Amino acid sequence: MKIQGLRPPLKSSLATMRVLSPVMFFSMVLLSIAVERPWNKFAGTDYFATPERGLYTLSLGLGGAFLAIAMVLCEFYLIMKSTAIVLMIGGVIKEMVTILVGVTAFGDVLNPVNVMGFCVVFLGVVMYK
C-alpha cells in the first residue's frame, strides 16, 4: 500500500499516524515476540506470578505507552500551532528537566564539564526567549 497513492490524500500527520499505527503495532509485536521470546525471559520471574502482579506489570507497560502516545500527539499539536524551533526548545527543556531529576532524585553526579554544558544550554534557552 502506498500512502502517496491514497485518494483523497492524507491532510495531516495525525491522519498519517492513524493509517500507519495498526500496521506498525502488529509488525512490532510480531517482531518483538520472535526476537525477544518473552516466555523464556519471564519464566523465572515474579512479574506474572499472581493475577495482581500480572495486572500491575501490564498497567505499568500500558501507562508508559499511553504517556508516549500523548507526548507524540502533543508534539504534533505543537508543530501545527507553532514552529519546529519551539518544539526543539521544548525538547531541550525536557532533557534539562530529566537531568535535574536524575541528579536530585537518583543522586547522579555531574562533573564540571557537564555542569558547564548545562549552564550554556540553559543560557541559550533563556536568551532565545
TrEMBL record:
Domain of life: Eukaryota
Predominant cellular place of this UniProt entry's protein: membrane
Topology in the lipid bilayer: Multi-pass membrane protein
GO cellular component entries: membrane
Keywords for the protein's UniProt record, in alphabetical order: Membrane, Transmembrane, Transmembrane helix
Membrane-traversing stretches: 12-35, 55-78, 85-103, 109-128
Localization annotation: Membrane
Alphabetical list of InterPro entries matching this protein: TPT_transporter (IPR050186)
PANTHER family cross-referenced by the UniProt entry: SOLUTE CARRIER FAMILY 35
Name of the featured protein: Sugar phosphate transporter domain-containing protein
Annotated source species: Trieres chinensis
